[in-house]
Amino acid sequence: MKKAVVALDLTSSDDRVLSYLMENNEILGIDIIHFAHVLPEKLDMYPITTGLWEPWTAESMNDILNELKRKVQPYFTPQKGKIEFHLSKGDPLAELVSVAESVSADLVIIGQKSGVKKHGVLAKNFIRSVKCNGLVIPEDRPDEISHIMVPVDFSAYSASALKRAVELSIGKENSIVITALHVYETPALGYYKLSMTEKKFRNAIKSNIENSLKKFIESKIGDDSEKVNIKVISRGVPSVSAYITEYALATDVDFIIMGAKGHSKIKLLMMGSVAEGMLSANKFLPTLIIR
Fold it and tell me: Domain residues for 122?
């Protein structure tokens, strides 16, 4: 993830996004950052420093661009070829996707405001639309990356997420814990027909899944599999995303990496549904979606 586009809306929430990126950029490994701001689509005017609404002019747009640069300056020192700024007008999501494609970004980053249902870019719509990797940073979030969780469904997408987690952890001064989590459903099979108690039956299922998860990780990341802890959880009625979120919040996870799509023989993970569910339920943990 060498080239990123960061969406800013010129509100106080930008500072939370910028401070997080500044503190964790060594781990994220971003070399070039394009900061983008999208002007309102349905308005031909914009509030400037006078507090009045004025028609679009070259001067007023230049003022907004300068405000964008002032917002970034305390966190990232402008460097030619390393920091770029983009100002456009239209639908926030469409314009953000357009900027990402125009600069061949491999990561797009948005902030997620707490307690606000309507804002420029909704996280789940963002993930559906962006063709590269996407990172959602909630306003109320941990400050550092020290424990990465990767939901695994045995798909190629989750394998890519595991590889990215390992890449982010390699060579870092502070050790990063990685946990691979799989949420499964116990098959509806009469354990009494297998001459087992219910407890033994459930333990046998769990053990088999743990072994499968271990082998899957070893096959995908080789020797680096030693860096990954494994955890399997049997699910009940709530959604897979609810179990993932609850586990993350209960175990000091501070960063989530997951594939945009998944598959499962028992159809627990539908195409993109778990990623979208995670972004809807998770209000506190930065989540990186891998394409």
Answer: 3-138
